[in-house]
Every structure is written in structure tokens, then in C-alpha cells.
Design brief:
Layout: E1 3-8, H1 10-13, H2 27-38, E2 43-46, H3 54-67, E3 72-76, H4 79-84, H5 89-105, E4 109-113, H6 126-149, E5 153-155, H7 178-194
Parallel strand pairs: 1-2, 1-3, 3-4, 4-5
Helix pairs in contact: 2-7, 3-5, 5-6
Length: 209
Amino acid sequence: MRHFVALGDSFTEGVGDPVEGIPLRSAHDWLAEWMRAASPGLRYTNLASRGLRAGEIRAQQLQRGLSLEPDFVSVVAGANDCLKGPFSAERLRAELNLMLGAFQSVGARLFTATLPNFTLRLELPGGVRERVGRNLEAANHIIHDLAGRYDAIFFDFWESDLDKNPALWSEDGVHPNARGYLEIARQVAPVLERHGIAVRVPAAQGEGR
């Protein structure tokens, strides 16, 4: 593997609350460090930017990502589509399909993940909570479907225990905190390894394996 490129929003950028003793870095940044430990010389570019809907990620990051000639690409998108509204399942599917298809066409291996269940932490009026919940279910169905279509390495947030641990989340209820990003990376790492991606995960923060 030569070049890992990550596209996305604040989750991939690494926005969140600090935690004493743990650097604030996105899960992608942690994974890239551990992948580089296993594959010295690996390049890593994180193109993600906070607040973007899937269409904005595609418009602002896709061509730049393709120009970097990556052989491993993460595309995690849809959270802002679900939270900000108006939500269109058809538009989200089209945007993700464009991004995943474009990178598959140049031979890159793909990674994607479902979205966290924000309704477990956000204080929302009943009607808004139900709407966001429906949006998330629709988005995650699309992500799951496209992951299979494009043979992407896939991490299912809703099948993990990450959403259930309040110690991993920032006060805003949307973003992981520094501990959360590190824990997400630790849970994603074995998924990558099962698909042949070399990852050298330290036994504990700041320690070598």
C-alpha cells in the first residue's frame, strides 16, 4: 500500500473534546499511524472538513482525492445530511455512489462505515428525534448496500458498543472525544486486518506492540 486518502466531514477530520493524556486525533489519523508502522513509507492525506453534506464532500474532495492516486480510500459521509436536513435518500445514494465508484474505477480499495446513532445522546423534541432516527436508518441502509456493491471494507457502528459508552463522546453528543476516536480506531483496526490491511496497533496508548 502506497497512499491512504480519507474523505469526509468533521468525524474524519477529528473534531471533538480533548481528554487529558490522549491527543485529539481522528480515528483515521490513528489508523494511518498504525498502518504506517506496519508499512513504512505509507503516505496519508486527510481531506475531510467539518460541516459538509455528502454532495459538498464530493464537490470539494473527490477530484483532489483522485489526483493523489490513492490505493486505499475511506469515504464516510452522510451525518450532516441526516442532521441538517432536508434529507434525501436518493441524493445521498447518488453522491456516495459517485465517490465510491470513482475510486473503484482507479483500482483503490475502499473503506466506509455506518453513522453513529446520534438520537441516543442529543436532546431533541420528539418529532425531530423521530425524523433524525428515520434519516439515520435510511442512510445506514444505503451505506450498507453500497459497501456490498463496491466490495468496500465495512465497519458497522450500530453493531458495536461505541454508541452506548458516554465516556467516548463530546458534550455536543455528535462527535467522539479524544478517547472515543482512539477507541473507534482500535475497533476498526482488526476489521482492516481481516481484509489484509497491515496494522500495527500498540498495546496501550503511547506504547509499541
